[in-house]
Write a structure and sequence with these properties.
Layout (H helix, E strand, L loop, with lengths): L2 H14 L6 H4 E8 L14 H12 L6 E11 L2 E11 L14 E13 L2 E9 L1 H7 L11
Parallel strand pairs: 1-5
Antiparallel strand pairs: 2-3, 3-4, 4-5
């Protein structure tokens, strides 16, 4: 694995573990994010380093000790990197709709696919087990609205 890939993967993991110090070098302006967000958004509003930092910080707010570890990868093909990660932490409160008590342990996994250009992430696809996380946090589904 090249030093550039090692640096990029290390900075990516550090970002998700709450270290935002390299985000401006890591995330390209105009980055394209493909993800189902907890607020129902599709990720299109995350289009630069500042927005990426905000999104990560928002996730970490109710899970302040969340730790991401890479289990598989990076698998490299052309300008794409694939990573399987595992996250563990403790619920600290404040997740909308959560019924779990503070201190509840959480444990979930996901896969990141990153498109890289000139040492920066220009596109990101996220596939995470949010259902498992929401179940652990005891988030109840919203009542369907009358049509």
């Amino acid at each position: 694995m090249s030093d550039d890939i090692t640096r990029l993967v290390g900075a990516w993991k550090a970002l998700w573990n709450g270290d935002f110090s390299d985000v401006d070098e890591l995330i390209a302006p105009g980055v394209r994010v493909h993800a189902a967000l907890a607020d129902g958004g599709d990720g299109s509003a995350i289009d630069d380093a500042k927005a990426m930092t905000g999104w990560v910080a928002q996730l970490r707010g109710p899970l302040p000790d969340l730790v991401f570890d890479i289990e598989v990868g990076p698998i490299v093909q052309d300008d794409l990197l694939a990573l399987r990660w595992h996250a563990t932490g403790t619920y600290g409160g404040g997740f909308p709709g959560a019924g779990a008590p503070v201190g509840t342990p959480v444990d979930f996994t996901g896969v990141d696919l990153l498109r890289v250009r000139d040492g920066q992430i220009v596109e990101y696809w996220l596939n995470s087990d949010m259902l498992l996380l929401l179940t652990q946090l005891r988030v109840q589904p919203a009542e369907p609205s009358a049509v």
